[in-house]
TrEMBL record:
Coiled coil: none annotated. Keywords: Transferase. The keyword Transferase applies. The keyword NAD does not apply. It comes from Bifidobacterium aquikefiri. GO terms for molecular function: transferase activity. It holds the Pfam family Glyco_trans_1_4. Gene3D superfamilies: Glycogen Phosphorylase B. This is Glycosyltransferase.
Length: 363
């Protein structure tokens, strides 16, 4: 039985990816111990530091305090239990992996590198020296790891030839699969949830909803979240009676809520990052039994096959037509909901961690 130490400032509540990996490894028979002091700063907050460098001091102080606790706990655990077989550094672990490499010399370190910091900052409007520095941070983090876990082949292609990478789909946690069994019928139509970043392409969703209304098609649409494009989208849609805005839902409540909708919307942007990812919400919404409409990109087409409806990135008219088809043809809607449920079986924690187990057993 492999002993894995999950290590770092990851926050499973806000970013469930590492929790899915941990659950999957345990289901495969690994003993996974967590040494975790969560960093409460969100991805958006970390990117904000790039735009306002004077906030870096407060972030560094907070991170250093967490590291003191991580180091103390790690040394105590190793003293009692000996070295683990491998160390898993959770999502957003660009800094944590540097500490892990210092503490666990000679131990394989798996870095869950779900995002490239430089690529993300560029996608959110940063440029110049900020992006250059973040790309350097990406490189330092990758160099400190033994194996880099990525979510798509497109992200793996961003590694250098000497790097060791493994593609692990994000998948969905058991709460999403359980939610659809707890839902007593579906009485709502369409849901989107996300951070309103350029990656999401929410302005495309807004235009698509407007075009639907012009045809007299007004399904109930719920938009959950806030972010960079929120004000623009809210202005575009605030006069439509069929659109509901919810600024925040607790992560624990999101699976059950989403499972009450028939259709879930993915991402629709034309940004470079938008063309390289399969978003969490797509895996999660499929697990919850929703029919999926999302952008037609290589990674999404590759992972989802015929189980989703794909529209051209940035094309609001195509999105309008896709929604109209499902709304007006209940039998097609039911077929796509069932296709989602079947496809989601490939993305449980147990299934997505199979490649990690093969790597651990051969190293």
């Amino acid at each position: 039985m492999k002993r894995i130490l999950a290590f770092g400032t990851y926050n499973k509540r806000k970013h469930p990816r590492v929790g899915i990996i941990i659950d999957g490894l345990r289901e495969h028979g690994c003993e996974v111990v967590e040494i975790n002091h969560p960093l409460t700063l969100s991805t958006a907050g970390r990117v904000e530091i790039l735009k306002k460098p004077w906030k870096l001091f407060g972030f560094a102080t907070h991170l250093l305090n967490l590291w003191i606790h991580l180091r103390k706990d790690a040394k105590r655990w190793v003293k009692t239990n000996g070295n683990p077989d491998a160390v898993l550094v959770g999502y957003m672990g660009h800094f944590d992996v540097l500490l892990a490499r210092h503490l666990f010399r000679g131990i394989p370190i798996l870095l869950d590198h779900l995002i490239f910091a430089g690529d993300t900052a560029k996608d959110r409007g940063s440029s110049g020296i900020k992006v250059t520095l973040l790309k350097h941070l990406d490189r330092m983090a990758i160099n400190a790891s033994s194996l880099v876990l990525l979510d798509t082949e497109e992200h793996k292609a961003m590694l250098q030839p000497q790097d060791h990478g493994l593609v692990i789909p994000v998948g969905a946690s058991k709460e999403w699969y359980n939610a659809r069994t707890l839902t007593d019928g579906r009485d709502k139509d369409i849901v989107f949830y996300g951070l309103y970043t350029p990656l999401q392409g929410v302005p495309v969703i807004a235009e698509g909803i407007q075009l639907l209304a012009q045809r007299g098609i007004t399904p109930h649409v719920t938009l959950i979240g806030q972010g960079q494009d929120y004000e623009y989208v809210h202005r575009q849609l605030e006069k439509l009676n069929n659109v509901e805005f919810i600024n925040w839902i607790e992560p624990e409540d999101l699976p059950l809520l989403v499972s009450t909708y028939d259709i879930a919307l993915g991402i629709f942007s034309t940004t470079s990052k938008g063309l390289h990812v399969v978003p969490n919400k797509v895996y999660q919404s499929m697990a919850a039994g929703c029919a999926i409409i999302t952008s037609d990109t290589p990674p999404q087409r590759r992972e989802l096959g015929t189980s989703a409806i794909f529209t051209e990135p940035g094309n609001a008219k195509a999105l309008r037509d896709a929604i109209a088809t499902l709304i007006q043809h209940p039998s097609q809607l039911q077929q796509h909901m069932e296709a989602s449920r079947q496809c989601s079986k490939k993305f449980t924690a147990f299934e997505v961690t199979r490649p990690i187990m093969r790597w651990l057993q051969s190293n």
